[in-house]
Each structure stands twice: as structure tokens, then as C-alpha cells.
Write a structure and sequence with these properties.
Mean pLDDT of chain B: 93
Number of helices of chain A: 0
Mean pLDDT of chain A: 91
Radius of gyration of chain A: 14 Å
Helix content of chain B: under 10%
Strand content of chain B: over 45%
Low-confidence stretches of chain B: none
Structural class of chain B: mainly beta
Oligomer: heterodimer
Distance between the termini of chain A: 32 Å
Shape of chain A: globular
Radius of gyration of chain B: 13 Å
Low-confidence stretches of chain A: none
Largest interface: A-B, 27 and 22 residues
Largest sheet of chain A: 6 strands, mixed
Strand content of chain A: over 45%
Chain lengths: 114, 112
């Protein structure tokens, strides 16, 4: 989606295992990388974000890593639970601050198998 | 209290009709947005307003006209609806442009 590439499009993992979703971006000026979770029938909700001055951020079972040189960032979910099943979106800003817009990846549908 | 609320949640209408979707945020944010989510879940920005001023206007047909009467409201009016307009439309807000987005629960538009 407009220079934010996200993989995989679908992911199925056994409950308790880890899940990893990867994104790449093209705008080297991007400095803010959020991840959103969208549950069925709801709007996306921010679950974690990272700024370009750090390489990793963790919040309980969720972590995000950033490689600015390679323009990659990833979402890691450990000890997955049924309620982690949802569509996950990475995003990155594009454009100058006066007209910056958040561009979303194409989404990953995560399914947790019991 | 819902932070970003949009109405209606569902909208079913005939081709050629004109319809509006309303959005309100009570977060005191400066910036509001409209996003369109298609059947493949792809989220694409349509418009962004900052303090009632249009700052982002993506390649959207001019049948779509946003209106922001004040900082807390951003409505979307669609003229001459087409089949391809069927999608889920999300309103969102953020404190400043390009920062954390707070989304509404979406309006599922079905054009028959």
C-alpha cells in the first residue's frame, strides 16, 4: 500500500506459539512506526508504536523492532492467545510534516489455533 | 463515552443517491481523517482536516465532499453513489498530523 509493504497476508499459529509480522517502508524520512489491531466489526486500534530513535520496544507479550538502515520493522507476539486473532496493520508516515499522512500496510489476518 | 463516534453504522442505498456520514470526536484533537477500507481490508486515506482546514485530499472523486463545521466534527457527503463506493468508511482523529490515530467503529456502506 503506497510503499508500505506487509507480509504475510495471512498467518495461522498454534496457541502459545509466537507470531511475527514484517513490514518495509520506502520513505527514509519516516520516523514513526505504529501497529494497529482490527477486530471484527471494529475500527483499528493502536497496540504499539516505535520512533526512529530506538531499535526495539516491548509491551508485555508484544514487541516491535526497527531496522532503519534496511527500512524494516516487525511486530512480535509471544505466547499467543485466542484473543490475539485479528487483522494487524503496520503503518508509516509519508510526506513532510505539514502534509504528513499515515500510510497503512495491506494487513495480516492472524488466526490462533486452539 | 466513545472517543470517536460516527453515524450511521450501516448504510444501504441505491445507486445515484446522495448520502452523508457524520463523525464527532471528544478527544480535543486538532486533526481528523476519513479512511476507506475495501473488501480486501486495505485502508486508504481519503481526507485530512487540521483545525477545520483541509490539508490532505487524496485522489478521490469530487462526488466525495468532506465538511468540518468545527474542530470536533468531520462529515462526509457522497453524491451520486456508485456500486464501487461500497466499503467501510472510518473516521479517525489524532492530536497532531501523522501521529497516533483513534478510529471510529466504521460505517459500512452498501450501494445496490
Amino acid at each position: 500500500g503506497e510503499n508500505v509493504e506487509q507480509h504475510p497476508s495471512t498467518l495461522s499459529v498454534q496457541e502459545g506459539d509466537s507470531a511475527v509480522i514484517k513490514c518495509t517502508y520506502s520513505d527514509s524520512a519516516s520516523n514513526y512506526f505504529p501497529w494497529y489491531k482490527q477486530e471484527l466489526g471494529k475500527g483499528p486500534q493502536l497496540i504499539i508504536d516505535i520512533r526512529s530513535n530506538v531499535g526495539e520496544k516491548k509491551d508485555q507479550r508484544i514487541a516491535v523492532t526497527l531496522n532503519k538502515t534496511a527500512k524494516h520493522f516487525s511486530l512480535h507476539i509471544t505466547e499467543t492467545q485466542p484473543e490475539d486473532s485479528a487483522v494487524y496493520f503496520c503503518a508509516a508516515p509519508r510526506g513532510y510534516s505539514s502534509a504528513s499522512k499515515i500510510i497503512f500496510g495491506s494487513g495480516t489476518r492472524l488466526s490462533i489455533r486452539p | 463515552d466513545t472517543a470517536v463516534s460516527q453515524t450511521p453504522k450501516y448504510l444501504v442505498t441505491q445507486m445515484g443517491n446522495d448520502k452523508s456520514i457524520k463523525c464527532e470526536q471528544n478527544l480535543g484533537h486538532d486533526t481528523m481523517y476519513w479512511y476507506k477500507q475495501d473488501s480486501k481490508k486495505f485502508l486508504k486515506i481519503m481526507f485530512s482536516y487540521n483545525n477545520k482546514e483541509l490539508i490532505i485530499n487524496e485522489t478521490v472523486p469530487n462526488r466525495f465532499s468532506p465538511k468540518s463545521p468545527d474542530k470536533a466534527h468531520l462529515n462526509l457527503h457522497i453524491n451520486s453513489l456508485e456500486l464501487g463506493d461500497s466499503a467501510v468508511y472510518f473516521c479517525a482523529s489524532s492530536q497532531h498530523l501523522g501521529e497516533k490515530l483513534f478510529f471510529g467503529s466504521g460505517t459500512q456502506l452498501s450501494v445496490l
